[in-house]
Fold this protein.
Amino acid sequence: MTPNILKKNLTGYLFISPFIIGFLAFTLIPILASLYFSFTKYDLFSAPKWLGFDNYFKMFTDDPRYWQSVKVTVIYVFAGVPLRLAFALLIAMILNTASRAVGFYRSLFYLPSLIGGSVAVAIMWRNIFGDQGIVNILLGMFGIPSVRWFGDPLAALWMLIFLSVWQFGSSMLIFLAGLKSIPSSYYEAASVDGANYWQKFVKITLPMLSPVILFNTIMQTIGAFMTFVPAYIISKGTGGPLDGTLLYSLYLFLQGFEFFNMGYASAMAWVMLIIVGILTALIFMSSKYWVHYESEGGR
Amino acid sequence: MKSKSVKWWLYHILVGGFAIFMLYPVIWLVMSSFKQSETIFITAKSLIPDPWVWDNYKQGWEGIGGNSFGVFIKNTVVLVILTMIGQVISSAFIAFGFARLQFFGRGFWFAVMMVTLMLPYEVVMIPQYIIFAKLDWLNSLKPLVMPAYFGHPFFIFLLVQFIRTIPRELDEAAIIDGCNTFSIFYKIILPLIKPALATASIFSFYWTWDNLLGPVLYLNSPSKYTVSMALNMFLSNETVSNWGAMFAMSVVTLIPVFVVFFMFQRYVVEGISTSGLKG
Amino acid sequence: MLIHSLDENWTWDDYQNLAQKAKAAGIYIDTGMKADVFFNYFLRTKGKSLYKKDGTGLGYDDDKLFEEFFNMTSNLVKEKAVPTPDYLAQLKGIEDDPVVTKDAIGIWQWSNQFVGLQQVANRPLEIHNMPGPNSKEGLYLKPSMLWSIASNSKHKKEAAKFINFMVNDIEANKLNLGDRGVPGSAKVKEALKPLLSPAQQQVFEYVEWAEQNSSAFDGPDPTGAGEVIELLDNLAEQMAFGQLKVEDAAKQFRQQAESILSQNQ
């Protein structure tokens, strides 16, 4: 190894050393421990009992609630994430003008995300979707009959999806930051060349924004898979009605901390990790085809 | 004098209208904080409180266990500032390494970092607690703050993506001018990702502000409680919850977050107007 | 139509009649019964129990008992004498329970929750005993809190002293005033009596009456009870929604509960 390459490696490791140290100190052991637990029966009070792959077998063959939670979570992710991203991008673009009011509007749109996973929000959300809540009143104004949000498992899940979409502010902010990083000279040059709005969007905005779109897609997907607090509060910890809101993380929590099947919960966590990991890797691999990095080659 | 065009009015009506629609739940929250606690849900349909009371704010401020709410706010501010500085700076540092530098094993460590993002917290929570107990860090801010200085995968990934949008020609120009790696980081890259840094700061601020699980695990004395913990204590599963006080204090604690956001979002907006490559 | 008082020896049939009358008057009878608690009571009145004494299985063999109890509860929902689960899911807490908003006649609760209820309802309420037949066999005094010391504790003596303090110390209990349950110690009860509000007195009197009119408590729930309870709640919800036939629920419950509890061998 030449001295130059050695120096390059050292510099690289120097910069990422904080992460490596933190990882080894705080994260590696808990991760390995949780992997170990997943092969045991562990109720948090007595010593773990080795079970081999039993937890995993039970999960896949003998637990209908598990599959229900998978189904619920898949709907939640694949309906919620695209909606959320679309909204976020739309509003970010609308707000990407230089008027003074924009800063104010931006803060307003961001407000729902700020009050985030707090208990107050979930409670308020339950109230709005009640039988006489404001949502049904609004629907009534358009001649649509009231929906029994709490009475139907699928409707209840949409309550959660709407809550997630309502908090699109964080994605919007990231898109805004991305939009602002696109040099306006590109747009000016395009105008000179006679491009219209749609062409500018497709040829400049989307490609330049693609690294950020990638980021948002991945992060929102991961986050959606791990959603817990809203489901817990809105369903009062039951995942109801009829397990309609039993998101994967909620079921995991119930297994680990209410039924004290920590081993089983750890197994669930590892399965989710693998699935989300594969999904993320797929998205990353696809990124070669649609993500464009300014730093790695020209337009 | 230029008169306001139809487009201007249309824009503001649509956007403003949508904003109000989006904010209805928040408005409801604020209005409810001025209603008498027991009547909040009974009068949920009407927004305007009748009568308008300030009791909830007075009661809520009294706090818990002899600690006024001001104590909780102070605790939270300390926690948040320490965490925010740690997370943003360390993540920027690490992100530069991943995004700009070549070294053996880079892909491996990047994958490791992404994997840590995907494991649910509930599962590593317990072994981590045991580690912190052995270090004797319980009932203090240390388990919450120390990890912040070792980077946070979300921010690292975010900043990596942003750094990769910066053309390498800038780096090369700097090297020709005699800069070493560190000054490339400090003088070239860092200023150019200001929007992303501001975004990361905003996220770090309010995630830490709202975080409940961490403080609940590691802060045991009421005098160290954070705002999120205090708000949670107004609620009860078996007896009557003090909704009024909880909503009132939620509003109070929302204000700093909103203010910080408002201050920082300017930096998110002030991106580069040119690509920096002239001539 | 007014109902002035309930007979002390009322039965489940009387209860269902009362529910019909409530429905006719346009209100609910109550908000339903917590499945595991009241099914257990019902089983006890028949000489059985929910769990086997050693916790390794269910304490009753005849699924007809399951069907009898849950047919009653599901019918009440079907006939709208008891609200549906989605109505219940929207309740925030005790303050909008129908009995407080005057939309129901009563509520099934543990006796020590009466004080909080009375406070919110803001009108005089009565405590009435459980329906029979055999309510004496069914009823039991359940400790609202089971103090325990970890077997691997390094401070067993100090922990025991603390428990002793909480249970027997008169000054401490004067601050508590039975909020977590009527004190077990007779001495403490006597010392607290003069300090009680009318609602608290009602609770103390009821518990005293219950002492004479109940039978032995079955002991703490076995390991895995959390899952069994959740299972039963789930099935009860499905039955209340009319999505599961009671006979099928009985079989499902037996099969899954036994499998959960058999791990306690």
